[in-house]
Design goal:
mainly alpha
Length: 113
């Protein structure tokens, strides 16, 4: 749980920075995405044995990957509404699952599991 207390807030902060694209502009958006990959990989390696809901953990990481790939494609191919929607939906889904998993782990810790 201590590892989640470190990594989850960092990933949430990265998610917030990524959501503020109009304020931060593209270079910071790209840098935050790369930093997010590094943090997410480290988070996965360090906590994999402690996953309470493995399927949801994998889906959360999959959403980050989808957001990353669709964002990269959007940089090359502009004005594709479906890609843009998929990028935004997967990014929001990642953050929502991150928060859900963090709260779930906090509640499980409180119950003594």
């Amino acid at each position: 749980m201590k590892k989640d207390l470190i990594f989850s807030p960092i990933l949430l902060a990265i998610g917030i920075v990524l959501a503020l694209l109009r304020v931060t502009h593209m270079p910071i958006h790209i840098a935050a995405s790369v930093l997010g990959v590094v943090v997410l990989v480290a988070y996965t390696v360090v906590t994999k044995k402690e996953w309470k809901l493995p399927a949801v953990e994998v889906i959360m990481r999959l959403f980050y990957g989808i957001a990353l790939v669709t964002g990269g494609v959007l940089m090359k191919v502009h004005s594709v509404p479906v890609l843009s929607a998929l990028h935004k939906i997967s990014a929001v889904s990642f953050v929502l699952l991150l928060v859900f998993l963090f709260v779930h782990k906090l509640l499980a810790k409180r119950r003594g599991r």
